[in-house]
């Protein structure tokens, strides 16, 4: 890494040489987080609805069309030429991964004409030319307030909606005279535009699809209030996902699977390895039975609804952590059928309530996010990133 940091130019994939500073795109961390929590997968149809200046789109393109493997895994051999030089030969057969990955689609939209032109320049510069020409990425200049603008496209699996807002983040950082133009009426007008954009995004979404709604605004009107209006309109068809809890559980589960020997104590007694394995054992049984539920092991982790979620989701990303409340319904059924099932579920309850809570307490991961009614917000007094509001919405 230290050697790479000191180089001044780089050979691009087409053998041309360019200064490395010209190939680096500096991202606001808020853009990275908004795109990250959308959890884009290969082969999905994704819309970045208000995309300029392009940083979030680059992150999304990398998730859909980027490499599945580290560059280190593409090294064929290394020859030491002398004490100061080495020759590295790479396997180039996966460099143009997107040429064979033709199922994915990224639609990048910006309505404002000047911002659209800037967006095009950024994407043409920082994405490979043959990806731009492949037909897998569309850079468009549509009005997001007009639903018919997107009629040419099928519905999307994921939509990133980083809406135009009052930009409190930038007003705070710049400390400019722009703050004098701030008013409640502007915020409320922004809120109405944001709701119409979210409404159209919801119509463009496939059932079970996901929207990340984000702003850099502080106002309730531009954040939770917009979500509340969507819930009132579509009621039971809107599911708000606690993406921070989801992320904690994903990382916790991964840690449990990677290291069963986590030292936790109860009454100064160390849990043995087999107790901890029970938390992740359900994944093994599901995979062994090709996704079918093994009723004998149903009690070892979570309720049936959670199992159904796991069997319909990529197992490598399955959320197998246990929630105390979601276990109650299953615990009642298992008591009627078999007391041993109840004991197993209680064990999982205990593992989750103690291990998981201690895990969250010890880590600083995402601690800068504060819970709001529907989403999370990071504020300048706690966050290194400044103002960022995110709400994760699923269409059900």
From TrEMBL:
Composition bias type Polar residues, residue spans: 319-342
Record's keyword annotation contains S-adenosyl-L-methionine: yes
Recorded superkingdom: Eukaryota
SUPFAM superfamilies on file: S-adenosyl-L-methionine-dependent methyltransferases (SSF53335)
Main localisation: mitochondrion
Residue numbers spanned by region Disordered: 319-346
Protein name (Swiss-Prot/TrEMBL): 5-cytosine rRNA methyltransferase NSUN4
Domain SAM-dependent MTase RsmB/NOP-type per the UniProt entry, residue ranges: 1-267
Keyword line: Methyltransferase, Mitochondrion, RNA-binding, rRNA processing, S-adenosyl-L-methionine, Transferase, Transit peptide
Keyword RNA-binding: yes
GO molecular function terms listed in the Swiss-Prot or TrEMBL record: RNA binding; RNA methyltransferase activity; S-adenosylmethionine-dependent methyltransferase activity
Active site per database record: 216 (nucleophile)
Catalytic activity: a cytidine in mRNA + S-adenosyl-L-methionine = a 5-methylcytidine in mRNA + S-adenosyl-L-homocysteine + H(+); a cytidine in rRNA + S-adenosyl-L-methionine = a 5-methylcytidine in rRNA + S-adenosyl-L-homocysteine + H(+)
Protein source organism: Piliocolobus tephrosceles
Stated family: Belongs to the class I-like SAM-binding methyltransferase superfamily. RsmB/NOP family.
Locations listed in the record: Mitochondrion
Residues involved in S-adenosyl-L-methionine binding: 110, 162
């Amino acid at each position: 890494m230290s050697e790479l940091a000191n180089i001044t130019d780089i050979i691009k994939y087409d053998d041309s040489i360019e200064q490395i500073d010209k190939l680096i795109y500096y991202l606001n961390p808020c853009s990275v987080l908004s795109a990250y929590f959308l959890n884009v997968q290969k082969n999905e149809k994704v819309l970045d609805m208000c995309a300029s200046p392009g940083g979030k789109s680059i992150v999304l393109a990398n998730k859909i069309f980027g490499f599945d493997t580290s560059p280190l895994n593409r090294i064929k051999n290394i020859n030491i030429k002398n004490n100061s030089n080495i020759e590295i030969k790479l396997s180039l057969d996966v460099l143009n991964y997107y040429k064979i990955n033709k199922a994915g689609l990224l639609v990048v939209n910006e309505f404002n004409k000047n911002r659209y032109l800037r967006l095009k320049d950024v994407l043409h510069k920082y994405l490979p030319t043959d990806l731009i020409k492949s037909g897998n990425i569309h850079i468009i200049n549509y009005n997001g307030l007009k639903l018919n603008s997107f009629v040419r496209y099928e519905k999307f699996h994921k939509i990133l909606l980083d809406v135009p807002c009052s930009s409190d983040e930038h007003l705070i950082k710049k400390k400019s005279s722009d703050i004098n133009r701030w008013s409640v009426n502007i915020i409320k007008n922004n809120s109405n535009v944001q709701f119409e954009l979210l409404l159209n995004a919801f119509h463009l979404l496939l059932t079970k699809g996901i929207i990340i709604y984000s702003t850099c605004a502080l106002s309730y009107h531009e954040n939770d209030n917009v979500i509340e209006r969507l819930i009132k309109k579509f009621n039971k068809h809107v599911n708000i996902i606690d993406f921070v809890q989801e992320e904690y559980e994903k990382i916790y589960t991964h840690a449990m699977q990677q290291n069963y020997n986590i030292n936790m104590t109860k009454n100064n007694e160390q849990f043995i390895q087999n107790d901890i394995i029970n938390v992740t054992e359900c994944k093994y049984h599901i995979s062994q039975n090709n996704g079918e539920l093994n009723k004998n092991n149903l009690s070892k982790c979570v309720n049936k609804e959670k199992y159904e979620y796991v069997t319909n989701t990529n197992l490598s990303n399955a959320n197998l952590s246990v929630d105390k409340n979601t276990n109650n319904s299953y615990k009642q059924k298992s008591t009627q059928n078999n007391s041993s099932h109840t004991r197993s579920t209680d064990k999982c309850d205990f593992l989750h309530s103690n291990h998981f809570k201690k895990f969250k307490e010890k880590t600083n991961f995402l601690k800068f996010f504060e819970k709001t009614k529907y989403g999370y917000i990071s504020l300048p007094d706690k966050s290194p990133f400044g103002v960022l509001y995110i709400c994760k919405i699923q269409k059900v």
